[in-house]
Design a protein that fits this description.
By secondary structure, the chain is an alpha/beta fold.
């Protein structure tokens, strides 16, 4: 935990000195500023980042959500990115079940257009299971998130 910076909020519940405290990641992102004895959240957003970082570029999360999430046959998707980490795109099928190879080709084409040079791994899954119990469409690679 840092006294100032940008990252994911932690929630800590300290009931009294005789009990242990619980700490969990909220999924909400914030910028915490510290000046003297005052701290303030200068920016607070939900669990989704506003911008997704790739090796050679960054894209608005809304653009990726619209472009990938509205492709025929895609019921849901989750994109995992991070420094030194090959992007992984997980998708689940819409109902009725589409032709998986056609959906994979459409996802490959969309990503090639949006982030040329990136070669994400594309995996079909039965359902998108969010890490940490919260729905997250964009996930940083393991060790990439820094709690505030």
């Amino acid at each position: 935990v840092q006294p100032a910076g940008a990252g994911e909020l932690l929630v800590t519940n300290v009931v009294n000195r005789a009990t242990v405290f619980l700490r969990y990641r909220s999924g909400d992102r914030a910028v915490l500023d510290t000046a003297g004895d005052r701290q303030s959240l200068s920016r607070l957003s939900g669990p989704e980042p506003q911008q997704i970082e790739f090796a050679g570029s960054a894209l608005p999360a809304g653009l990726l959500s619209t472009r990938l999430g509205l492709l025929p046959g895609v019921g849901d998707f989750q994109l995992e990115t991070g420094p030194g980490h090959r992007p992984v795109l997980r998708w689940s099928a819409d109902s009725p079940a589409p032709d998986p190879s056609a959906v994979r080709a459409a996802l490959t084409d969309a990503l090639a257009e949006l982030v040329p040079g990136e070669r994400p791994s594309i995996e079909q899954v039965g359902r998108i299971t969010p890490p940490g119990g919260k729905k997250r469409r964009f996930v940083g690679a393991a060790g990439h998130r820094s709690p505030v």
